[in-house]
Amino acid sequence: xxxxxxxxxxxxxxxxxxxxxxxxxxxxxxxxxxxxxxxxxxxxxxxxxxxxxxxxxxxxxxxxxxxxxxxxxxxxxxxxxxxxxxxxxxxxxxxxxxxxxxxxxxxxxxxxxxxxxxxxxxxxxxxxxxxxxxxxxxxxxxxxxxxxxxxxxxxxxxxxxxxxxxxxxxxxxxxxxxxxxxxxxxxxxxxxxxxxxxxxxxxxxxxxxxxxxxxxxxxxxxxxxxxxxxxxxxxxxxxxxxxxxxxxxxxxxxxxxxxxxxxxxxxxxxxxxxxxxxxxxxxxxxxxxxxxxxxxxxxxxxxxxxxxxxxxxxxxxxxxxxxxxxxxxxxxxxxxxxxxxxxxxxxxxxxxxxxxxxxxxxxxxxxxxxxxxx
Length: 374
Known about the structure:
It is a single chain. Helix content is 32%, strand content 26%. The protein is α+β, with helices and mostly antiparallel strands. It has a six-stranded antiparallel β-sheet. Strand 1, helix 2 and strand 2 form a beta-alpha-beta unit.
């Protein structure tokens, strides 16, 4: 890949089998308490080092150019990192589409090394990897994985004010957007992690810090009366909000480090949620304590609806917001969420947990009951 070195990759591809499916490894060595470093070494010893990349040294956009020297629509990429690393790689793949390299777009699998890993969980790759499975088995699983599409969404935030000449902020969302207590917890967590990054290398410790800020918010209730501060529109229709402290817009099944927020307790009929149907699920929460109850299936969320386009207007105050775990404090603005594109993902249909099986059966029963009522 050096600029001063010419390599004839045509000789490589011409001598390969017709059903050849090359795998490229993209590892974030800063993820997972140095687990990324260990995996990088293991994959390099097992594979040709040219197909294994350290994303701290070679960014995704450069690493993915290897796909253009390989057979079209054949490459599978294994991203070793958290949901943020996956988003970084998917952004680089979107840039390949802009460059006219769509026929070289790879399918993406995930080896979860971060803290939340909700996207990985949704696609069946688990909530976190700690070295319990040999890398040889991981590679076989990637080769056997099924193709799947993931909706990606554009979030545009326009600040309020007649004299505001700044360009709108634009984000790409894979997992979820939220305003309220969970965004506040993420904001506090990130502020302390930036001050002392060495203290936040453990997944268990990170979750303990989140728990601390959630408990604190239960007492202070910094986000109360959100329904008086925000207007919500789903596909252009104004929604009358009940008393709430937070709103979460979901693209995937999991939220908050392993909670199925849209399903809640699973005891109520509700439309099925998918990550490839061009629909977003919008729910409300009544504070950090309510979020904790939902996580242990002791409460249901306030389901506000499903929509292709979501619009929120923050009228006259400052509130914490987050997109895929990246938080900030936001003043009066308009937030517009629209469909952007699809990503080609790989999903692992491994053994279901008891929670997954019961959740699936409850969804099917709820759907059958709805059909009978109709």
